[in-house]
Amino acid sequence: MSEGSPNPFSEAAREYRAERDRRETPKLGRHSPVIRPRASEASPKHAIQSSDGMENDPVSDPFAPLEAHDIDRVCFPIPSESKRSARPLTLIQASQIKFDTKPNQLVKNWLSHGSFSVLYGESGAGKTHVALDIALHVAANATWMSNKVDSREGCVVYISAEGGRGVQDRVLALRKAKREIGHGAHRLFILPSSVRISSESDGLLEAIGSACDVDPVLIVVDTLARCFDGDENSTMDMNRFVAAADALRERTGAHVMLVHHSGKDGSKGARGSSALRAAIDTEIHVTNSKKGIQASVTKQRDFASEGQVSFELQPVFIGKHLDDDEVWSAVISPAQDAEHRDMLAPQSSLALDALERALRESGEARRVGGGQTRRLCARLDAWYDVCRTLKITKSCSENSLRVACSRAKKSLRDQSLIDFDATYVWLTEQ
Q1: 147 to each of 108, 139, 163, 419, how far by Cα in Å?
Q2: How far apart are CA 344 and CA 362, in angstroms?
Q3: CA pair distance 160, 200, nearest whole angstrom
Q4: d(CA 63, CA 198)
Q5: Is the torsion defined by CA of 95, 100, 104, 105 positive or negative?
Q6: What digits encode the pLDDT tens for the residues 60-117?
Q7: What is the DSSP letter of 378?
Q8: Packing angle of the helix pair 127-139, 166-177 (nearest 10 deg)
């Protein structure tokens, strides 16, 4: 070895000492090494005395200098069996992916099989009407609003978490008003109580298994708030809920739809943490205005869609109570005249709005037109009073009001939007 050249053995010695010194003063942390002594080394050297002077189980002192024979016993924390993934994970080779000719859309342009959606809107917007209508059409495997349905002969589970008779009355109204899809009721199952998705999903699956003889293709949770554990604004709580909903989808193969409320500003989306919108595949916004109920797709992950449909509420008589009081509910029907209404003269449009309001406030169920069908009717005078309130005419005179109402009444009848007799007026079937 030439003079002045570095001594490789000295270099190695320095590195060894540096490594030894580093190991002799270990840093405590999440991955700090734990020295596990051999069974034969259970000696006082490897025992630690607690503050009360009692010796704990023999373990190595993490602060003691490491010896050469200790190096092969340096262990890092290993996840416990309970924390390991229980489900098998399978990788797919990209070159093996092939085009699937089988459609994967549950409701074409709206919902996909096995995916995750939110249908939201303000209170009273008609969210439940829309969700129930979709649910019955899927259960019946019937086209919904001109969009093909592929239910794969599965059933539908509707969690009516707000309870009460309201949803059940609406189901009766659907069966009565839409007899062509009434057979779907055999595959539509209602749970008239809340269920905590994050903690009670096992009980839900047991209930589904005992009631349904086929797998569900759609599970509707109405509403998220009634089935939520924690704070909707908390990202942690929302992520926990989303994980539970994902597990429900994976275990059933069903599409999970959440019915949810909008925030203070409906234009900014559903209420609560934005983690929900990030997780879902489809978002549907339901609004209610003078033009009726409207459902619009505001997010679609898997396929392009600008789905938008308009509805009108159709009152349906469902029976009488023992005290002879009539019970009415309502269903949605396509607003095929929504665009037509935009073309109505302002007076006629106001008169139609006035009639719908009069029907809500003081409608009476009557047989009209000499037939057996009962329709929700308003007295002509009640209709005129609402027309006056809505200022169908600028003049304040009673004669001007009567003339304006008479013209609007004739115009609406000519367009088959209303009908009337000497005392009552009603909307025609669309």
Answers
A1: 5, 14, 30, 31
A2: 25
A3: 15
A4: 44
A5: positive
A6: 455 555 554 554 444 444 455 545 556 688 999 999 999 888 889 999 999 999 999 9
A7: E
A8: 50
**pLDDT for 217-253, tens place per residue?**
999 999 999 999 999 999 999 999 999 999 999 999 9
pLDDT in tens, 176-211: 888 889 889 999 999 999 999 999 999 999 999 999
Q: What's the DSSP call for residue 357?
A: H
Distance of alpha carbon 415 from alpha carbon 428, whole angstroms: 10
Is 114:253 a contact under the CB 8 Å cutoff? Answer: yes
If you count them, how many residues does the chain have? 430
Lowest mean pLDDT among 31-45, 85-99, 137-151, 362-376: 31-45
Instruction: Check whether the bond before 235 is cis (ω within 30° of 0).
Output: no
Distances (CA, A) of 95 to 99, 101, 103, 116, 119: 12, 18, 22, 28, 37
**Taking the complete model, does pTM exceed 0.70, yes or no?**
no
- Going along the chain from its start, the domains and CATH numbers come out as 8-79 (no CATH), 105-327 (3.40.50.300), 336-427 (no CATH)
Please tell me the distance from the alpha carbon of residue 114 to that of residue 5, in angstroms, as a whole number: 71
Q: In this structure, are strands 155-160 and 326-334 parallel, antiparallel, or unpaired?
A: unpaired
End-to-end distance of the chain based on CA atoms, in angstroms? Answer: 105
Residues near 10 by Cβ (< 8 Å), separated by ≥ 6? none
Least confident of 6-20, 189-203, 374-388: 6-20
Q: What is the per-residue pLDDT for 428?
A: 81
